[in-house]
Amino acid sequence: MNSLSGRGGADGLPEWDRCAVMGVVNVTPDSFSDGGRWFDTTAAVKRGLDLVAQGADLVDVGGESTRPGASRVDEDEELRRVVPVVRELASEGVVVSVDTMRASVAEQAVAAGAVLVNDVSGGLADPRMVPAVAGTGAPFVVMHWRGFSEDMNSRAVYGDVVTEVVDELRARMEAVVDGGIAPERLVVDPGLGFAKAAEHDLALLAGLDRLRALGRPVLVAASRKRFLGHVLAREGTPPPARERDAATAAVSAIAAHDGAWAVRVHEVRATADAVRVARAVEGAR
Fold first, then answer.
1. Which of 225, 226, 244, 279 is catalytic?
2. 225 labelled catalytic
3. Which of 8, 34, 61, 206 has the most CB atoms less than 10 A away?
């Protein structure tokens, strides 16, 4: 594939001729962005279908908030939230990703039709995750992670954030491959907002070429995050999460231009337009 067409997407996933758009469905009451809006199965499925209609290429379904300070949901509750939504969306032909740190949820979601496991801990939170995903054969997102939400802000200490994130991701990729997941099925994610301050997130976006040098597709998940609030703050007050969608679309255009495989967003339409414009400009060169 050439540099315009999809950045060498992971085996087992569709290929797109541009940066893909991953829409978010949070089946949670406490997401930082839209907690409670899609909390029941019917509403969550409708939301996923609406995101596809707006231009999402795949839909990421999660049942556990990972906002800073969030407490973990128990396993049975996460399964109850996630699996029926995955099953119904997959039955409608939607390309579904499951956002989970639990092996049992990953396994059941893949059995219900999910084609990608997006683990914000990169397999560190649950020692069963890597062998479980290897057993399913599903592609796997390895995100940069330094610990659970309750205390991750205290871990946002870096000398050179891009170098350290790249090195830690490389080590994690090697461990995941040693655990049985084929390297061709890996996607990497710099973990914007996870044990990162605003300046760290911005530096990682500026250093996307170094993340791409890891040799795997890069997922950028910047949507509505705190660093955008920091950038947009007027008189020291950041706008609420739902007022950061234009800024999110701007990041999506930049990430698409710089070779991201996909961008993960809460509101799809503006980002779907942004990545298509980025593709058209690249194609005109």
1. 225
2. yes
3. 61
